[in-house]
């Protein structure tokens, strides 16, 4: 009896561990085009969901382009404001981590590339909440209280293992404890009767 319950409990744990945690995604900006002028990055970004923990990967020939992290006004003007020293990536294989929610703007600061469309704006959403029971999802303290994550919800992996649904964990634990105690009592009784 007890061992059957222990096995079911084990099965529940194994099933929970098998649910994939929401994994970070790498987005190659422009896909096969890479990072170039005369590509429409608005079109590229359309329909994509960017989340904290994801990376943007900018691929280009080093020296020919770069990636400057700018603000919205700078983005509009294709010009970095006077006196500002923005973050610039220039390796040609730049991994840009998305660490905060909200709009992020990037452009190439070489020649007229930005005005030729080598610019990207995205909107970063909070990290995806995994269906696994724990640990508690990370909540960015600077972002509003975590309401259900906006945007398209990642299709939940069919979360229910084929075994019957688990009862609430507290009563489950009590049931297990009780059956353990009964097993101990039975063993003790057997010893006494022997
Ligand atoms: C994303 O790219 C980084 C850097 O190249 C790499 O370390 C990481 O494994 C990649 N992650 C995924 C999910 O592909
Ligand atoms: C890029 O594509 C979007 C639609 O995806 C369009 O609204 C926009 O005008 C295009 N930009 C350019 C510079 O062609
Ligand atoms: C770009 O910014 C610089 C200062 O950083 C300024 O001198 C220049 O006039 C600006 N150009 C445009 C087109 O806004």
TrEMBL record:
GO biological process: response to symbiotic fungus
Primary localization: membrane
Positions with biased composition (Pro residues): 135-168
Phytocyanin domain location: 25-126
Record flagged with keyword Membrane: yes
Gene Ontology CC: plasma membrane
Keywords of this entry: Copper, Disulfide bond, Electron transport, Glycoprotein, Membrane, Metal-binding, Signal, Transmembrane, Transmembrane helix, Transport
Any GO MF annotation of the entry: electron transfer activity
Pfam family name, one: Cu_bind_like
Superkingdom as given in the UniProt entry: Eukaryota
Membrane topology: Single-pass type I membrane protein
Signal peptide segment: 1-24
CDD domains: Phytocyanin
UniProt-annotated stretches for the region Disordered: 135-171
Keyword Membrane: yes
Subcellular location, record wording: Membrane
PROSITE patterns named in the record: PHYTOCYANIN
Full protein name: Phytocyanin domain-containing protein
Species annotation: Canna indica
């Amino acid at each position: 009896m007890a061992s059957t319950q222990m096995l079911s409990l084990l099965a529940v744990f194994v099933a929970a561990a098998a649910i994939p945690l929401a994994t970070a995604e790498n987005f190659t900006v422009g896909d096969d085009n890479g990072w170039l002028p005369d590509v429409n990055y608005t079109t590229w970004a359309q329909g994509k969901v960017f989340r904290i923990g994801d990376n943007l990967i900018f691929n280009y020939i080093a020296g020919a382009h770069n990636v400057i992290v700018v603000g919205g006004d700078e983005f509009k003007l294709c010009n970095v404001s006077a006196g500002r020293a923005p973050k610039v990536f220039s390796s040609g294989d730049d991994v840009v981590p998305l660490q905060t929610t909200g709009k992020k703007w990037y452009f190439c600061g070489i020649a007229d590339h930005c005005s030729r469309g080598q610019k990207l704006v995205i909107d970063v959403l909070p990290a995806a909440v995994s269906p696994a029971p724990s640990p508690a999802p990370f909540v960015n303290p600077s972002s509003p209280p975590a309401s259900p994550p906006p945007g398209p919800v990642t299709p939940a992996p069919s979360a229910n293992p084929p075994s019957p649904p688990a009862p609430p964990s507290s009563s489950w634990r009590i049931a297990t404890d009780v059956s353990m105690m009964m097993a101990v009592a039975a063993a003790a009784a057997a010893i006494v009767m022997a």
